[in-house]
């Protein structure tokens, strides 16, 4: 057998279907695993109330804002956020922006749920679905990425421009400051993973040849006897 007669990553020969190891099915399966991780991070960013946190060393104090709750170490409890008093008067702008972030993240979860469903439909379908389903799947994933990026950008904008987050103190042993916290990081990592999944799907669809089906077993030649 010639050195390049069979390569597990390339088509076996001219005129024959692709039977290599790296198939579209494997690409879909691998990216689905990573996408489920991103999905979990997105859900965590919604339910973990730690988008923006205030830390103080003296006295020790921790106060965190989530999309739907805020928590304080003074009471060791969490309460719904934003509340009515947070959305009245001069705070109305902040309240609207914060609720917009919550809406965008929820919409992102809906898009990611649709993407997971499309993944399973493609993987459980036939060759035709694997050949053509990549465009719709990648579009849905990119849509979820765009929504999460918009939500993250709104939080970053509020963090940089809203006066309530400008209070800080660094004096001797006393340090107090606002910072972007875990949920913000979860969101960022989530859309980065999702974007890589979409890129991998598009690249695989554009570069990998069509997958092979069943091939006829060649008839034994007389020389074999």
List the helices and strands and how they pair.
Layout: H1 24-47, E1 52-57, E2 60-65, E3 69-72, E4 77-80, H2 92-124, H3 127-132, H4 134-161, E5 169-171, E6 174-180, H5 182-207
Antiparallel strand pairs: 1-2, 1-6, 2-3, 3-4, 5-6
How would you describe this protein?
With 225 residues, this protein is α+β, with helices and mostly antiparallel strands. The protein has one domain: Butyryl-CoA Dehydrogenase, subunit A, domain 3. The chain contains 5 helices and 6 strands. It has a 6-stranded antiparallel sheet with strand order 4-3-2-1-6-5. The longest helix is centred in the middle third of the chain and has 33 residues.
What distinguishing features does this structure have?
alpha+beta; disordered N terminus; Butyryl-CoA Dehydrogenase, subunit A, domain 3; 225 residues; 5 helices; six-stranded antiparallel β-sheet
Low-confidence stretches: 1-16
User: What is the overall silhouette?
Assistant: elongated
Q: Strand order, biggest sheet?
A: 4-3-2-1-6-5
Mean pLDDT reading: 83
CA-CA gap between termini: 19 Å
Named CATH topology: Butyryl-CoA Dehydrogenase, subunit A, domain 3
Q: How many structural units, i.e. domains?
A: 1
Compute the CA-based radius of gyration: 26 Å
What fraction strand? 5-15%
Q: What's the architecture in CATH terms? A: Up-down Bundle
Elements, N to C (H/E): HEEEEHHHEEH
What is the C-level CATH assignment?
A: Mainly Alpha
H/I helix tally: 5
Briefly say what this structure is.
This is MARVEL domain-containing protein. The protein has five helices and six strands, in the order H-E-E-E-E-H-H-H-E-E-H. It is of the alpha+beta class and 225 residues long.
